[in-house]
Specification:
The protein folds into two domains: 110 residues, Nuclear Transport Factor 2, Chain: A, CATH 3.10.450; 84 residues, Hotdog Thioesterase (Thiol Ester Dehydrase, Chain A). The strands form three sheets. Strands 6, 7, 8, 9 and 10 form a five-stranded antiparallel beta sheet that branches. By secondary structure, the protein is an alpha+beta fold. The longest helix has 19 residues. The C terminus is likely disordered. Helix content is 28%, strand content 43%.
Length: 196
């Protein structure tokens, strides 16, 4: 997929998501998702889980919208494209919870395969209050043939709140498959920047 095509696809998806998250109809959003869509949200929280198919994914989106009081917004920051139909997108999110605006960034993937979270660990060091602004740093640790690992650190000011790591495996047709060249290159480049 070329970059312009990927940018147009993400623009349509984010526009439909933002309309839905602000209280709009699900029709446009549903039409942009493949019937076999799989949406995975790691962790242990009110929205964590794996959602399969239109109905489950839209139910998840509805729950997310409700928790954020129709304030959730997504903005594309960057997109990586390469050979084939795989794209990786860096997206910023913003929502208001309890009168406080929270902002974060995520990396998502659209492809003919799945990116499966196979291991997730977290060591909690200190509690945080809902009103506190936290920072989350994510850095790649390693990239292998069909998997990669990222480390994360959660902090508030100078206080370490939590640290952990997540291991992902790229899967096609139910079997481990090579990490797409585009994603492999981006992770390897980021790892080199972290190590250097």
């Amino acid at each position: 997929m070329d970059r312009e095509e990927a940018l147009q696809l993400l623009a349509r998806l984010h526009t439909a998501q933002n309309r839905f998250y602000s209280g709009g109809d699900e029709g446009e959003l549903r039409s942009l998702l493949a019937p076999e869509v799989v949406w995975h949200v790691p962790g242990r929280n009110a929205i964590a889980g794996t959602y399969r198919g239109h109905d489950e994914v839209i139910t998840y989106f509805t729950r997310r919208r409700s928790l954020a009081g129709n304030t959730f917004r997504m903005t594309r920051r960057d997109v990586l494209t390469g050979d084939g139909n795989t794209i990786a997108a860096l997206t910023d999110g913003e929502a208001t919870f309890g009168g406080q605006t929270q902002r974060w960034s995520t990396v998502g993937q659209a492809t003919g395969g799945d990116l499966v979270l196979v291991e997730n660990s977290c060591l909690y060091r200190h509690p945080a209050r809902q009103s506190e602004v936290i920072t989350i740093d994510v850095d790649p640790l390693w990239v292998k043939r069909s998997s990669f690992c990222v480390a994360f650190h959660v902090g508030h000011g100078q206080l370490d709140l939590a640290e952990g790591r997540s291991v992902y495996v790229f899967v096609k047709k139910g079997m481990p498959a090579p990490v797409p060249t585009l994603l492999d290159g981006a992770l390897a480049g980021a790892k080199a920047r972290v190590a250097g």
